[in-house]
TrEMBL record, chain A:
Keyword Transmembrane: yes
Residues forming coiled coils: none
Enzyme Commission code: 2.4.99.28
Family: Belongs to the SEDS family. MrdB/RodA subfamily.
MF GO annotations: lipid-linked peptidoglycan transporter activity; peptidoglycan glycosyltransferase activity
Gene that specifies this protein: mrdB
Protein name as it appears in the record: Peptidoglycan glycosyltransferase MrdB
Taxonomic source organism: Thioalkalivibrio denitrificans
Biochemical pathway: Cell wall biogenesis; peptidoglycan biosynthesis
Automatic annotation (TrEMBL), chain B:
EC class of the enzyme, as a word: hydrolase
Entry's Gene Ontology molecular function annotations: penicillin binding; peptidoglycan L,D-transpeptidase activity; serine-type D-Ala-D-Ala carboxypeptidase activity
UniProt lineage: Bacteria, Pseudomonadati, Pseudomonadota, Gammaproteobacteria, Chromatiales
EC numbers on record: 3.4.16.4
Organism: Thioalkalivibrio denitrificans
The protein's name in its UniProt record: Peptidoglycan D,D-transpeptidase MrdA
GO-annotated biological processes: cell wall organization; peptidoglycan biosynthetic process; proteolysis; regulation of cell shape
Cellular location(s): Cell inner membrane; Cell membrane; Membrane
Domain of life: Bacteria
Catalytic machinery residues: S326
TM segment ranges: 21-41
Membrane association type: Single-pass membrane protein
Amino acid sequence: MRTLVRALHLDMTLLGGLLMLASLGFVALYSASGESLDTVYRQGTRLALALLVLLFMAQIPARNLQRWSPWLYAAGIGMLVLVMLTGEMGKGAQRWLDLGFIRFQPSEIMKLAVPMMVAWYLADRTLPPRLFEVIVACVLAVIPVLLIARQPDLGTALLVGSAGLLVIFLAGLRWRILMGLGGLALVGAPILWHFMREYQRQRVLTLLNPESDPLGAGYHIIQSKIAIGSGGLYGKGWLNGTQSQLEFLPERSTDFIFAVYAEEFGLLGVLLMLTLYLVVILRGLHIAVRAQEAYDRLLAGSIALTFFVYLFVNTGMVTGLLPVVGVPLPLVSYGGTSMVTLMAAFGILMSINSHRRLLAR
Amino acid sequence: MSVRQAIKNHQQEQRLFFVRVIIILVMLVLLFGLLVSRLVYLQVVSYSHFTTLSQNNRVRIEAVPPPRGLIYDRNGVVLAENRPSYQLEVTLEQVPDLEATLEEVSELVSLEEADIARFRRELRRKRPFQAVPLKLNISDEEVALFAVNRHRFPGVDIQARLARHYPQGEWFAHVVGYVGRIDERELARLDRRRYSGTTHIGKVGVERFYEDVLHGQVGHQQVEVNAQGRVLRVLERKPPEPGQDVVLTLDAGLQTAAWNALDGRNGAVVVMDPRSGEVLALVSKPAYDPNLFVHGIPATVFNALREHRHQPLFNRALSGQYPPGSTLKPVVGLAGLENDVTTAARTMYARGYYMLPNDDRRYRDWRREGHGLVDLDRAIAQSSDVYFYDLGYRLGIDRMSPFLGKFGLGQRTGIDTTGERAGLLPSREWKRATQNMPWFPGETLITAIGQGYMLTTPLQLASVASTLATRGQRVQPHVLRGIIDRDSGELLHREPAENSTVELRNPAHWDQVVQPMINSVHRSNGTAYWSIGRGLQYTMAGKTGTSQVFGLAEDEEYDEETLEKHLRDHALFIAFAPAEDPSIAVAVIAEHGGSGGRVAAPIARQVMDYFLVEREL
């Protein structure tokens, strides 16, 4: 068994954690979808597909990924531009690229391509990077973020951006540069505000005072807080959450599934789920620390921490800590594309772990 | 690789990375701590606050079913509409004691056992907190009575809904059909989201065939409810998209004329425009009141209908399969001409019977003394059986059957409503396949006069008449004229169906069978002359037919007077007019009417008179 696992370049800790999270997801989804087995089956099919992708990615040595990074990045940017152009013609939000035989979101590719590209750029240079290099790396990360935010898909833009910035930080960003960037962000915030869509501004405003608009934008947050809060320590029991079963909760199967879970399984259930997430994240960081090559370390660290960003943005939103940004709860929310990308990322992590490169010194 | 690679200090970089991970870990712990303390705040500290909120939650999202599209006849007469009706609904979760409530409610509103049984069935498959109808269509008095006592019944409420209504009643029942409550089988195949909130679905007829067009798209509304689940006010609404209104090709005036023309008889009348295939009238008698089905038909009423001797639920016009009898003769005559086994000029002496060589069975003519010297014209106009026995013998089944097939016999026409059957076109292969028996020559003879195995629906006969009228242009019979565009209110016509043509070797043959049909109505020796030929204000081409219900031994005499009515022959008639430029084609069957000329032809004339004469005035 162990040899098989090793031959397939898998990592049992990671895989076990991921599968247990997905199982909790099925349980929550069955309840959130109004006991629809069909929905669960569809999600199961997606998981199976995503696991195949994971298996495939785990076989590719990180050395090859490193070589392909700029190409993948360039292709991703090209597709984003293409989507933007066709989107101009089609009006409204355009995220999909239709290649005839398959339809996908180029922004999903960028979740991997951006950290790979930034890691590729920094890995060959002396670390910590100098100011010029930091600026180049930031530009590399920011271009796709702007393209994606224009779609407009704030949630994905946030994830792609943080994946890139995390690489820069892990590469050993000097504190003065970090402070400078922080100051820049403070100045940039009003400018960003200027570029936000009306509904996005509304989300930030209602976050500050959700009760001000209980039937409009605040409805989501109020209902989800009621769901979580009324779950208590032990929860109302599976399939018994009144908030979700009575359809008070919007987006129950997707972005707000955490509230369904928290209502039915209570604080204890939530702590179990968070622990599983923590196991996956810590294992990812462990792999990153043990990696011998700079590229491997940076990419692995970024993947593990982006997973945490995912988790935190979603749970923060659902619990009312952060604005409502459309980020799904990884592995638990209903939906296909992001699951495949996530599993591809974990496949890369496993590959980095098992193809550990020895230094040719 | 750059030169700088050489001075990269790997150990230092690894240490640097490690320090960064430690910093990140600290932040991670902080953020996790923040998250967990938020959760503890929500789920432990404010638990009772949120529990109260959750119990008092007042805002709910409900599905709003779309109003069903209306059905009009071609002149704008309403055939199906929606009327407000009141129903009693129960939300189980809010009822303290269901049995006691049911008992008390039944003191105010009459509840039948069937209502309660259906209610309990539906309770089992409902979603939580979904209201289930207990009694449909309650009277205004009951509404008033219940409203006064409403406070006594938490979870029970009166809902105003739109209910389907068919103002034309039984006249259009067989073609328009009706809606009924969605049953389990339908539930399994429906798009549940689209039908959330919808209670009824088209069960038969146009209502079923065009369900997709008529249904519309579901809407949603956010409502504020009180503690008992009653809706206090609507907060936000995404209105449903109503179903589309459809306009049928049917003509309500003509339909009524055809209905009345059938008088007290059971039977069917199908009227078509031979140029377009538009079905102008489609009557099957007796019929039933489709309104009975909308609110759930009581089992006693339904069983009475189902077991009624005259089968009112049976759509004779589309599902009724009858031997076409002599109405088939023009087409068989055409088959003879096309296959060179006869000509218009050829004559033969028709006695009162026909015999095959080496067989002493006598195939009798309906006229005991025979028709004397007949050519094709007289054979059709006077309906000589012997001439067609002979023609059938010369033609043989293997040439006759495929030719009849070109007129669509034995196949569904594909009309856009439910219940159509294909009839039966016998052939040597068919008999081998279904009965494992050889084809006998005698069977060819009786097939040539439209008896034996041959079966046709009234719609197929109307289609045959229509094909003769247009000299071979076969049009697809249909009942949908178009759909009314919601924005502009204009009628969007249906796409014309693909039509086909019966190609003849010699097109002159058409007139050689159509002229005798004219003669059968307008010449004094024609089979329909004495009943309808006098005083006609237009030229009609017709063919009478009589189809045997009851087999007589060869030496027995068919005597209408002495035979019981249900054993009498069916009377048939097909016709089109005006013969020179046909605008109407008709098929009539009067069950057990006896004679096609005396009973069925006058019905067709009444219909045509209405269409060509009375309405023009």
